[in-house]
Each structure stands twice: as C-alpha cells, then as structure tokens.
Design a protein that fits this description.
Length: 305
Amino acid sequence: MNDIAFPWPGSVTVYSAYYTPDERVGWRESWHSVPYWELILVCGKDLHFQRSDAKLLLNQGDFLILHPHEAHTSWGKEPTNSGFYYAQFTWEARGSSTARQTSAPGEESAIRLPVFGHTTCDGAFHHFRELVDEYRHRPPYSPARSASLFLEICIGLARNSVGRSGESYPFRVDTPRQAEIVGKVVKYLERHYAAPIGAEEIECALNLNYEYMSRTFRRAVGMTITDYIHILRIRRARKLLVESNRVDSVAEVAEAVGYSSAAYFGRIFRRLEGVSPRQFIKNAYRKGQAEAKLNPIESRNPSRP
C-alpha cells in the first residue's frame, strides 16, 4: 500500500507540532510511538530514521506518514546536522473516524498522500514553521488555525510530491556503510541520469566496485541500477512531454532525458506508464481542455493570482 487517502470533507485536529534536531538525545536513544497519525518532514540530509524494522536514509524534502502507534527512532550512531518537523493529528470524515489506506487511483473525495514521498514544495516548510509557532504560543483560536495550516501542508504535499515506496525506498540496509553506498549511488544517478552512464562510469565516479555496489543497491532498493535510471528518466520525460504538448516532440524529449533511440524510449515509457509517449501527450491535452471548460474564467486569465 503506497498511498493514504484522507477523506474530504473531514475534521482535522492537531495534537502536537515541533521540530526535532537529529542531535536531540531523547530522539536518538529511545523508541517513540503515539496514538495519532504523524506527518514527518525532513530538513537537511542523511537523516537516519527507522520506522518499525525499515531503516531509512532521508534527505531534504522527504516526508513520511506514520500510522498510530507505529514505532520509530534513529538508527545512526552519530548525530547529523539534519532534523525533521512533525505533526501528530487525527483526521475524521463525516461518519468515519479512520483514514482509508489504499493504492487505487485518486478519489475526488479524498486528499491523497504517499506513505513515503518527496516534495520540492517550499510552502510545506513555511507552513510547518508557522504550525510549530502556533502550537508553542497557543494564541486565541489556535486549534482552528493549526488545523488550517496543517491542511495547507497536506494540500501542498498532495499537489507537489512523488511517492518513494514504488521507486527506490525504503532502503533495506544492515549497516551505515551500506546506507552510505546506496545514498551515493542515488545522488549520482539523480544528477547524471540524462547522460550516457554505464557500469564503468559509475564505478569510476564513485570509486566503488560496481558488482558490490550493484548488489548492495538492488538489495536495499528492490531494483537494479538500470531500472532506477529508467525511472528517473521517465519521470523527467513526463514533465517535458506535458510542457511541450507536441506529438512531434517525442524524439527531442527522448534525447533530453538520455535515450539515443526514440523507439527504445517509447518501449520503456510504455512499460512504466502503460501508454505510449504520444498517447500520454494526447491524454494530458484532453485533461487540460476539460479543466479549461470547468474553469473558463481562470483559463482566460492565466495570470490572475
């Protein structure tokens, strides 16, 4: 199960919101669990976070949804300069007191969040800082304001995030050294996926034995390095195809994300997305046309704030 659908309309109550630096002794030396849902948003890099038996290596913008009573702690020996915001909450639908966990396509009546995701939404950090400040000072109407800020965070994450569970996470590692190796590979691939990269290039760049690196990566991530490169390329290709909105741009997009053959790009895209690049563009165009019909004023005034 990769996503959690929190029903809407619903009632949100925030019970606690703080920032925890990784160096805090209480966080590092004991297990924690609460009877509420918990949203974690990471600041910094290489945060060693363990949820149940999964050891994770988290970086800026990674976030988690923890279930009620789900145990979590640090698994690193040494503190880092990172930390995380957290909010403990309940979310009740009308006539229901629980959130539904599902991996089915999104529902209009729910705000859907990955159990494990990554966001580039700066607004999530801004609203989280406001939420922590609201919880610390408790001014009048604080519960309502806290709920409003928390909803802003969730909507921002829902609109501007990608799920990690189906791609490269959680890391399944036994030692900090293995986590370090996997982290290095991930960072390298995310920076160079559009270039022609193979075993020799990766081995030389990271100064690691490729066979050992590949075996460690596959065990930790659940896929090969090559498969991970395809995922990074196709993720970028989706964005470029929507932006270009031209069927004749497929070859250009293929080259831009690292494929020398448009036909091969098409096969990989279909395998991962279920449709060809051309059909993907047509579907995106139809969706845009439908949204324009539903919002005619906004479509005529795209610059309106």
